[in-house]
Amino acid sequence: MKNKLIFLLLLCFFLDINAFAKDNRTLLKLPYATREDMLRSMRKYIGTMENILKALSKKDFVKVEELASYWLLGEQGKINLALKGNDQFIAMAVEFHTTGAVEIIKAARKKNLEATLMSLSSFFGRCNACHANFRLTEWPSTDYPPAAPKVIKIPSDYNEHEWIRREYKK
Ligand code: HEC
Asked: Whose CA is closest to 49, among 104, 109, 5?
């Protein structure tokens, strides 16, 4: 029993080892309200991306253009950005909200599916580039003990795709 527990603890440690790697990204030290505002808009970005992909699957380029235009830099956006306190972050955010968003709009206006997908791909690349360099929370952040494992419910039809597990070695 004791051995099993030690084994489990060790397993948790190894599986979770990345969680112990120090986060060396630049921390933006912002007031709580500003940070929460930023994270709220970030979460909204994923919703916009969801709707853009939906519109694209219907070849509704007018909708794609309209949705991508939410990402353009407006007057209020400039004021908010100026208060982020880091030149590199501001430069990346400006490029994202100008060059990046304009690329999607231009491709959608031409109703060019490949170019629109490509512009979305580079746009996502900009999300990743910024996330790779900046963070908003201190390291180490709030810590809690590991949660007790739960029973995971797998959709019943998942097991019908035996070949998926075979070919992808899962
Ligand atoms: C110019 C920088 C920048 C760009 C561009 C950017 N983000 Fe972020 N985003 C951040 C930072 C900084 C955080 C906080 C990350 C952290 O503390 O680990 C963040 C956090 C997030 C989060 C976590 C939200 C939460 O509730 O914790 C999501 C989701 C997210 N971004 C989505 C996106 C998506 C999708 C895009 C592109 C369409 C994007 N971001 C573009 C800087 C950026």
From this structure: 104
